[in-house]
Amino acid sequence: MDLQLALILGLTFVIHLIGTLAYAFRIAGIRTGRIAVAFSLFNILVLVSRTSNSFQGPFLAKRVETTIDGPSLYNLQFDFMLIIATASAATLVGGLLIPTFQRYSTTAVSSFRRNRSVLRLLLRSVTPRGISLLVESAAVPSYQNLIQLRRPSGVPIGVILMNFAASALWTVGVLAAIYAGTISPELRVTSSTLSSVINGVATIMLFIMIDPYLAGLTDDTISGDATEGFFRKVVVWMIVSRLAGTIAAQFMLEPAAKLIALTARAL
């Protein structure tokens, strides 16, 4: 594995890990009753994710263009499959870290309530006490939460399926658009810009259908109209559907890339 591919895999892991850990901040918001503060602190991680995303695209594009000039240099199909597999691994790791991270983020939200300083909060997180607190917060998913997969009663299946579809589209969008450049090298710039169409569909599903449901359920849990146990049950299913979506993206890469290349020719 060369350094460029290692960087791409690392950036991919960060992007999908942070996306999965968003659920931990929802739980922290419920436990503290401070949803706005929880999401504000989570935006710090979102900034890291978006910075990683801004570097991932150029690295991928450079790899494709290098391969077009020297076809024997890289095995792009294997590389892209490995990238998607990394997204699946990051989602799985993020799901397993939810118990640890929600405890740590709950402490962070409570600490911010006292100090009201993000800079001070960040500095404290890297002190021996902050690192010790992270270690003390370590926990594995409880068996009680995992068995929720065997009892999907009450879980909104429509929302879960939409989350699966949105996750698959979001995972494959940019990758397929850049990979399409190998199919039609002369239209690789046009193909790369079409990623916004695929990601746009995923974004619409996320912000119009999925996120409003989670926001409403979060408010219901805080007000007592829904139990925290049911909220955790939904979160488990959301993580599983997100993981399934990243796995499905493996099978969507080639068809999506060919469709994008065909669309680029038709424009």
From TrEMBL:
Compartments in which it is found: Cell membrane
TM segment ranges: 6-25, 80-101, 160-181, 193-214, 234-253
Source species, domain of life: Bacteria
Keyword Transmembrane tagged: yes
One protein family per Pfam: Amj
The UniProt record lists the keyword Membrane: yes
Membrane topology: Multi-pass membrane protein
InterPro entries named in the record: Amj
Pathway(s): Cell wall biogenesis; peptidoglycan biosynthesis
Keywords: Cell membrane, Cell shape, Cell wall biogenesis/degradation, Membrane, Peptidoglycan synthesis, Transmembrane, Transmembrane helix, Transport
Family per record: Belongs to the Amj family.
Task performed by this protein: Involved in peptidoglycan biosynthesis. Transports lipid-linked peptidoglycan precursors from the inner to the outer leaflet of the cytoplasmic membrane.
Protein's UniProt name: Lipid II flippase Amj
The species this protein was found in: Kaistia terrae
